[in-house]
Amino acid sequence: MTDHAELLQLTPLHSRHRALGALMAPFGGWDMPIQYEGIIAEHRWCREQAALFDICHMGEFLFVGDIVAGGLEDLFTFSVTAIPVGRSKYGFLLNEQGGIIDDLIVFRLGLNEAMIVVNAATAPNDFNVIQSRLRGGQFTDISSITAKLDLQGPRSREVLVDLLGGWVAEIPYFRFVRQTVLGSPAIVSRTGYTGELGYEIFLPTDTVGELWDRLLADPRVKAAGLGARDVLRLEVGYSLYGSDIDEQTTPLEADLAAFVKMDKEFVGKTALLQQQQHALGRIKAAFKVTSRRAPRHGFGIFDGERRIGEMTSGVFSPMLGCGIGLGYLEPAYAAIGARLTIAQDRTVMEAEICSLPFFDQGSLRS
Predict the structure, then answer these.
(1) pLDDT higher than threshold 70 for residue 157
(2) Alpha-carbon span 2 to 340, nearest angstrom
(3) φ, ψ (nearest 5 deg) of residue 11
(4) 123 to each of 51, 59, 68, 241, how far by Cα in Å?
(5) Residue 365's pLDDT band (boundaries 50, 70, 90)?
(6) Is there a contact between 250 and 275 (Cβ–Cβ < 8 Å)?
(7) What percent of the chain has pLDDT over 70?
(8) How many angstroms separate the CA atoms of 54 and 13, rounded?
(9) d(Cα 228, Cα 35) in Å, to the nearest integer?
(10) What would the mean pLDDT of 54-65 be, rounded to a whole number?
(11) Which of 150, 155, 201, 314 has the fewest CB atoms below 10 angstroms from its CB?
(12) 168 and 160 in contact (C-beta within 8 Å)?
């Protein structure tokens, strides 16, 4: 019998996770750390100190060439040429039906150079789709030679300033710099997925181990796994690809129209324009449970006995002291303050629809 664990990809830090006693599990085709000390403890450390995440499983692509003539400008739901050099932008790669192939971030490295950062599970398909739609330029998958660490938390700036230098403190939110880190070329970006002040660091795979070790030697820093990351991102209302958004979901249904520029061309625009002309059949909403119980992916959403939707994400929120989640339901029931029931088999919980984010007291823009 084939050992499926052998088929999983390993990040350059895999042996370090094992040495730290991490609980490992498959995620997006990779063997990834879910927790070390514990999800709640790691969550708290990120909210109060600085948590270090191995995000080497993410995909990175490099485009070099004329952004307009090469076709990169027409690929995403935002304008690449409108991104100033040194900044990044979040948005979507869509299919012809307006469904989300992936959510991604584009870093404008230069006038004719951009890095596209995509989700791990979708990276191979993303590369093929983007490559098939380009008309020119040089397009390269640099994932195998690119590592990524996320340092997140209110003390992340002071940690990196002490380790790398005062230039870190000068990086504004959603901007990045190209710098030398431990003797290697790197990109240090003030972005993240936690709602806290934080940085994403892209550097060569043969350097990431040393940086990981140096950061963990700082008493202000602890390693955190994907379990804590999931709680952190859900508390601030960020969608997770494969759970809350996918190819059968459009940005309009996902309540993410703010990341779609309808005044530019992109694949899927026609479908979205048509969808705008009709009432949506479902819409994503945020739910706060009236107890500490957590809704889970696939739980039904009910109005009385009538099933009106389905949950896509859910966790217990340490910051709110109750269960929270995201799900899709019929728009007529999606009013803020509406009280509904979430249930699966014998598990039943009362919930109220609320606005996002659930938690807005983080250090994100500090």
Answers:
(1) yes
(2) 45
(3) -75, 165
(4) 25, 5, 23, 12
(5) confident
(6) yes
(7) 98
(8) 7
(9) 7
(10) 98
(11) 155
(12) yes
pLDDT in tens, 265-318: 999 999 999 999 998 999 999 999 999 999 999 999 999 999 999 999 999 999
Query: How far from 83 is each of 78, 105, 140, 174, CA to CA, in Å?
Result: 9, 11, 20, 11
For 69, counting Cβ atoms within 10 Å of its Cβ (0-12 exposed, 13-18 middle, 19+ buried), the class is exposed
Dihedral, CA of residue 14, residue 204, residue 169 and residue 193, to nearest 10: -50
CATH 3.30.1360.120 fits 4-58+144-235, yes or no: yes
Whole-number percent of the chain with pLDDT over 90: 97
Q: What is the pLDDT of residue 366?
A: 83
Q: Which fold has domain 279-354?
A: Elongation Factor Tu (Ef-tu); domain 3 (2.40.30)
Q: Which two tokens stand for residue 282?
A: 């479902």
pLDDT tens-digit profile of 1-11? 344 456 899 99
- 190 Cα distance to chain centroid: 14
Mean pLDDT of the chain: 96
Q: How far apart are CA 55 and CA 270, in angstroms?
A: 34
C-alpha to C-alpha distance for 271 and 249, rounded to whole angstroms = 12
- Work out whether the CA dihedral 192, 194, 195, 199 comes out positive or negative: negative
- Per-domain residue ranges of the chain: 4-58+144-235, 279-354
Helix spans in the chain (H): 14-19, 39-48, 123-133, 156-164, 205-216, 226-235, 269-276
First and final C-alpha spacing in the chain: 52
pTM of the predicted model over 0.85: yes
